[in-house]
Amino acid sequence: MEFYTHTPHFSVPSASRARCIIERIKEAFRSAVSASFAFSFALVGTLLGAITGSLVGQETESGFLRGAVEGAFSGAVFSIEVYESSLILLRLDESGIECLLYLIEVIGGLLSGRLVREQISLAMLNVIQSQMGAADSIFEEEVQNFLDISGWKGLPEDSVEKIPTVKIDTNNITDASGESASCLVCLQDFQLEEMVRSLPQCHHMFHLPCIDEWLLKHGSCPHCRRNL
């Protein structure tokens, strides 16, 4: 009688699977760090925005309390935008001097109250465009007058027309994170073969009607606030 011995086989994870696990751990760690930085930026922005908004509110008809609330909201939102824009600047490999000048411009704008007012204006513009069908001409005119509270002159119409346009194709229809690229004013996704306007310095893209209307009132990018 013959006896056969069966050697047990243990499945050993392959090197590629181990690398995949390590990459997932690294990605989770990076996401956690990024979320922590974003929370810190939002917290600081909320505090600075509340202080700035309250000071601006005292000098206007909005009042101290309303100015503080609007400033806190705008400061939090804008701080997150600054953080995301900073990541984009790093990926674009721009010089340290350009990044420093950009941050100085951001801080100066926040302290002067301009960015708080512009952020509120952009939020109002989004509400108007999302409910344009229900708004009558009188209401639209009143809100457009409200959008002029910032007091900062926009670009001439001929200068706006000179800003380059690009066609949406398979190369630019998604952003760096792989999500569908969208207009940051109306929040609608871009469609293939659609013509959009790409701002020269930051390369943020917008629908032509959306960005043209904004630039005629504000001479800066509505997302990263870079002056044009």
Task: Please describe the structure with a list of short key phrases separated by commas or semicolons.
single chain, 228 residues, mainly alpha, Herpes Virus-1, three-stranded antiparallel sheet, 4% strand, transmembrane helix, Znf_RING/FYVE/PHD, zinc-finger, zinc ion binding
What does this molecule look like?
GO terms for molecular function: zinc ion binding. Pfam families: zf-RING_2. Keywords: Membrane, Metal-binding, Transmembrane, Transmembrane helix, Zinc, Zinc-finger. With 228 residues, the chain is mainly alpha-helical. It has helices at residues 15-59, 64-91, 96-112, 114-130, 137-147, 157-162, 208-215; strands spanning 165-167, 195-198, 205-207. It has two domains: 21-151, no CATH class; 153-228, Zinc/RING finger domain, C3HC4 (zinc finger) (Herpes Virus-1, 2-Layer Sandwich), CATH 3.30.40. The protein contains seven helices and three strands; from the N terminus they run ααααααβββα. α1 packs antiparallel against α2 (64-91), α2 packs across α4 and α4 runs antiparallel to α5. The longest helix has 45 residues, at 15-59. The protein is flat, with a radius of gyration of 24 Å.
The structural class is mainly alpha
Shape: flat
Radius of gyration: 24 Å
Which series of helices and strands comes N to C? Answer: HHHHHHEEEH
Tally of individual helices: 7
Measured distance between first and last alpha carbons: 91 Å
How many strands? 3
Number of domains: 2
Biggest sheet record: 3 strands, antiparallel
Strand order within the widest beta sheet? 1-2-3
Stretches with pLDDT under 50, minimum 5 residues: 146-151
Write down the overall mean pLDDT: 71
Which range does the strand content fall in? under 5%
